[in-house]
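Operator note (shift B, R.M.): manual run for Type-4 uracil-DNA glycosylase requested after the automated queue skipped it. Running by hand, logging everything below so the morning shift can see what happened. Input copied straight from the record, untouched. If output looks odd, do not overwrite the archive copy; leave it for review.
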Amino acid sequence: MISARDMTPAELAALLHFHADAGVEWLVEDEPVDRVAEFSAERAARNVRAPAAVAMAQAQTVQTTSGRTRPDTPPPLRGPAPSALPAIPDEHAVTEARFAAESARSLTELKTALEGFAGCNLKTSARSTIFAAGDPSSRIMVIGPMPSADDDREGVAFSGRAGLLLDRMLGSIGLKRESILISTVIPWRPPGDRPPSVPEVAICRPFIERQVELAEPKAVLLFGNLTARFFFNETGTIHALRGQWRDIACGNHAVPAIATLHPQELLTAPASKALAWRDLQAFAHRLAEG
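Run finished. Output pasted below as returned.
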């Protein structure tokens, strides 16, 4: 095996890009390391050092004229330990998100409001904020669930292999990514691609609903379990919710929407592509009707 020490900077950069494209997020050592044993050794060392530290502190005291001892230097004032910025309670964060979203009068203003919003903990671990991209004038909107690792790295919804498949799916019904509007329910990637919590979804809801309201699409194509459940307010799987036209309420607008399987699901279960093709045909037929 070639060692990293024997590689040129260009070769190392290429290798890192290859790992990133393959979905690698953590680097490990060549040899296994027993972290449990390391921790036990560090704790034992701290226990040995503690009595010595106490003895040293006692040796630094001096006798006063009254026979009492005092330290050479006054003790530091005690106060609250420094901590990170306090978390905003969920109900207050939802209120702030709703106010920020409703105050925006255009998609540009809404994007600025979302990028400046700090009430959702998902933002602290994400690299990118995913917002609606494309052509709003098309009045055609595609919405996915949450950013993937590829999306977070590229700053664009539906990136990587799933994005390439989405492009082919849209092309099969005569659409292009650049000619429609594409967004996600959750604007920030949850750590480790875990599902967002109920409070996190509630905090993000005003922003995606306002995106739909401002874009005023004539039809919306929803991808994946989370997206369908979010807009349809149901708990079924995508196989139970797909292929059915329903009106979704966003602000004062009711928009027709249909759900289908996410491209990532089709990559892992290619046999389901026939179902997605039916949904795409239904979407194209609705667009042709105007």
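Quick read of the result: Residues 128-289 form a domain with the Uracil-DNA Glycosylase, subunit E fold (CATH 3.40.470.10). Confidence is low (pLDDT under 50) at residues 61-71, 76-86.
Leaving this for review. - R.M.
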